[in-house]
Structure formats: C-alpha cells, structure tokens
Amino acid sequence: MEVPASPSSALRPFVQILTIARLTALETLRHPIFLLLSLTAVACILVVPIAIAHELGEQGRLARDSALAFQFGFGVLIAGYAAGSSLRREIETGILSTLLSKNIGRELFYGGKVVGIGAVLALYVLVAIPAGLLAQRVSPLNYEVDTLALLIAPAAVVLALAGAALDNFISRRSFASSAMIHLVITLSAGVLILAAFSRDSTPVPYGQAIEWRLIPAQLLIAEALLLFGTLCLALAVRLKTAAVLAGAAIFFLLGLATDYLLGTFPLLRGWAPHWQVFWQSDALAAGGHLSGDVIEQVSLYAIFYLAGLIAVGIVLFRHQEME
C-alpha cells in the first residue's frame, strides 16, 4: 500500500524553486551594473522630455514614447546581463554540479532561475513605471513647465540614494539592492503626490492629472523583457556570456524585422519573438487607450512563447555536461 506524501514533501519542489529564485535575484541585485543601468534608464526617462523642447505633433507624445523606449532598451541590457551571467558563472565555476548533487532536479533548478530573472525584471519595471508617469508631468506642455514635478522628480532619486546609503551604513545591506527598493518607494510616492495637483500646482480631483493609461503599455514592455530574459537564459546553457549577448542581439534584431522577414523569408516565422507587438505606443495617440482585446492577445502570445522558450531551455539544460 502506498503511503501518501506529506504536505511538506508535496510543497518541497515549490520551496526549492523559490529558494533558487531568491538566491538568483539577490545575486543579480547586488551587482552595481544593475543599479547603474536602472539609474541611467530613470535619468533618461526624466531628462529627455525636458532637454528636447519641441513636440512631435502631439503634446506629451515625446515623453511617452521616450519613456517606453528607454524602459525597453535598458531592460534588454539588464535582462541579457542577468540571465547570461548568472547561470553561466555557476556552470563554469562548478557550483552548479554541487547544487545538483543535493537532490535538486535540473528542471526545478532551471525553473527557479526563470523565476529569479523574472523577479529582477519585475523590480526594474516597478522603477520604470513611476518614472514614466513622472516624465509625463515634467515634460513642458505648450512650453510651460510643471514646477512641482521638476522639484519632486529629482528629489525622489536623491532621497532613494540617500536612504540606501543610510540603510547600508546602519544594517550593512547591499547598497545596490537597497537603492532599487528605495527608488520604487520614492518614485511611486512622487506620482501619488502629483496625482493631487494640476500642472500649475492647484488641487484637482485625485488622479486626474496623471496619465494612468501609460501603465498597460509599460506592462506589455515588461512581458517582452521577460521573454528576452528567458531567451538569454536558454542561450546561457550552452554559450558563454559574451556569446549569449551576441546571440540574443541577433534574435532581438530578427524580432524587430519580423514584418519584413515574413514577406521575404516565410520560413523564419516564429524563430524570434515579434517584439513589435509589445510596442503599443501608437494606440495611446490622441488620448487613446489600450483595449482589453489587444492586451489579452499580446499577453497570450507572450505566455505561449514564454512556455516554449522555457521548454527549450529545460531540454538543453537536461543534456548539458557539468564542468
């Protein structure tokens, strides 16, 4: 007669996945390059709308498009670095062989890596979203600036870094990871404060002065970044970090040229994610909103493509020789 598995043994795979994910995320967040890329993304998102005085036919469109573009561009670098360096370093140093000898299946280990990379990208997106909303307020409207937003936006960044430095001094926590948490808090607080005031600093019905419709477009960019990170993780099973970045760049360029390639080389269909479906800035033009149907279709595309990339990565990882 079979003995039913105890609840603890049934939950053990999930605990192992979460443990590996936590260690992967913490390891990545401690690297200064992650914070530097995130800070550069925030700075570009906030500064570009102010530095460029002209508008591209629609007030606020430059701030919106540049926020999405910088979120995507720097997110690609973060995803590629996080996925490429984390797994490859453990394979080359022999740490992975030790971990797999402790009754951790390869599938669970790889799944934990995917979740960990996803957590890192989620934290980056939580920084980019309020930065994009602040960019809509700091950008000049009819050549008139929002004084309150110009004070709050840089103050949020400075307070985040100061809070991280104080946290590091008191509790010895990693400055890089602590700074990301503080950025999420201070930038979000800045958005919540500005939501109560108009561009001329007069009180308005709460939330009326914030372009909340930008958030769905930013979340679709986040889905694209998760796909890219999972793609890099699959490449990292067999390639070194430099080769991972080069291979991911090729897939990225192929995905951007999908519309052209499908007409010229139909056999290339599906070889690279169609990144342009995640770029929905045009749907926001002239006060438009992303429809629920578009969000659902793009999200389903991301889910199925993500499942395929994870399956490919697991197959490659299962047959990978450990050093």
Topology diagram in text:
Elements: H1 7-29, H2 32-51, H3 61-93, H4 95-100, H5 106-138, H6 147-171, H7 175-194, H8 214-236, H9 241-256, H10 258-264, H11 292-318
- What is the gyration radius calculated from CA atoms? 22 Å
Principal-axis shape: globular
Q: Helical region count?
A: 11
Average pLDDT, rounded to a whole number, is 83
Helix content: over 70%
Calculate the terminal CA-CA distance, rounded to whole Å: 42 Å
| Elements, N to C (H/E) | HHHHHHHHHHH
* Total domain count: 1
Largest sheet: none
Write structural notes for this entry:
- This protein is mainly α.
- It has one domain.
- It contains eleven helices and no strands.
- It is globular, with a radius of gyration of 22 Å.
- It starts with 6 loop residues before the first helix and ends in a 5-residue tail after the last helix.
What are the main properties of this structure?
323 residues
Q: In brief, what are we looking at here?
A:
By secondary structure, this protein is mainly α. Helices cover 72% and strands 0% of the residues. The protein is globular.
